[in-house]
Structure formats: structure tokens, C-alpha cells
Amino acid sequence: MVGPNTGDGSSPTTSSSSESSSANSADITFAMQMVAHHEQAVEMAQMVLDKEGVDPRVTKLAQNIKDAQGPEIDTMNQWLDSWGAGGPMDGMDMGGTMSDADMAALEAASGSEANRLFLEQMTVHHKGAIDMAKTELQDGQNADALALAQKIVDDQTAEIARMKDLLGTL
Questions:
Q1: CA-CA distances (angstroms) from residue 88 to 6, 37, 39, 91?
Q2: What would you report as the CA-atom Rg of the chain, rounded to the nearest whole angstrom?
Q3: CB distance 76 to 31 below 8 Å
Q4: 30, 85, 113, 147: most buried by Cβ count inside 10 Å?
Q5: Domain segments of the chain: what residues?
Q6: What pLDDT tens digit does each residue of the chain (170 aa) get?
Q7: Are 170 and 116 in contact (CB under 8 A)?
Q8: φ, ψ at 86 (rounded to 5°)
Q9: pTM of the model
Q10: With contact defined as beta carbons under 8 Å apart, do 27 and 140 qualify?
């Protein structure tokens, strides 16, 4: 008889002290890319929070994104340190990342335009994060990274639905 399966080929219980030895290149790539991706989402959220005339539902969403992703950035940076990984993100493709022009447009927008632009851009941004998280779920091996990837898929899929609903009511 086969024992319990976690679905990722690892044993159901792994020591947290083995994080460095249980991370593969997919885990490291996921964490590095997601840190940079989340940092941009936090920056976008802060832009909206700093504006006046933004719908309170949009500012609440922006605050929720900032509150969720800030601690996730800290966690992933701790992983990267424990894995002996890190460094420049040059050349890494991160889907859904906003261009400098996109960020400038959001920064310049106000009122209803800021509402619309933030929701549209963050929807694209979240879709990129979901794609990266799905790649981690397929290729990663670190239990903590896999759990965070699943959380990102679940949370950001739900936020996309809320953003689409909000767009329809603004």
C-alpha cells in the first residue's frame, strides 16, 4: 500500500529547516519573479491610495492588494536568502508586468480614469501572476513555494472577478 501523497512527489511532511535543499530552479525563479511582480503591484496600489477622487471600493481593493502582497514579498525574500539565491532580474520574462508608459499613465490619471486604469492594469497584472504561479505548481518542488503559488492563483482569480464587477459598476 502506498502512503499519503502530497501531489508533488514529495513526502507529506518535510522539515522547514530543509527549505534550502528542497528548492529547485523553478522555485527560485518563481520567488525571484514574484518578488519583482508583487513590488510593482504594491507600487500601483500605492499610486491609487495617494490619489483623491478615487472610488472607495477601488481604494479598498488597492489597500487589500498592498496588505497581502507586502508580507508575501518579505516571505519570498527570506526564502531566497535561505536558498542562497537572488540577484538582478534582468532578462527574466514576467507576464503582466506594466511598462514604464503604463505606470506613468496610472500615475497621471485621476478620478474615474484612475479607477478604470487601475482596475484594467491590475487585472492584466494579476493574470501574469497567476500564469507564473501555475508554472510553479507544475515545475516547483518546495512545499512552501507551492502553497504560496496556489494561494496566489486562488486569491488573484477572486480579485480579478471583483475587479471585473467593479469595472461594470463605475
A1: 33, 13, 14, 9
A2: 17
A3: yes
A4: 30
A5: 23-84+97-169
A6: 333 333 333 333 333 443 445 899 999 999 999 999 999 999 999 999 999 999 999 999 999 999 999 999 999 999 999 998 876 555 556 677 889 999 999 999 999 999 999 999 999 999 999 999 999 999 999 999 999 999 999 999 999 999 999 999 98
A7: yes
A8: 140, -175
A9: 0.82
A10: yes
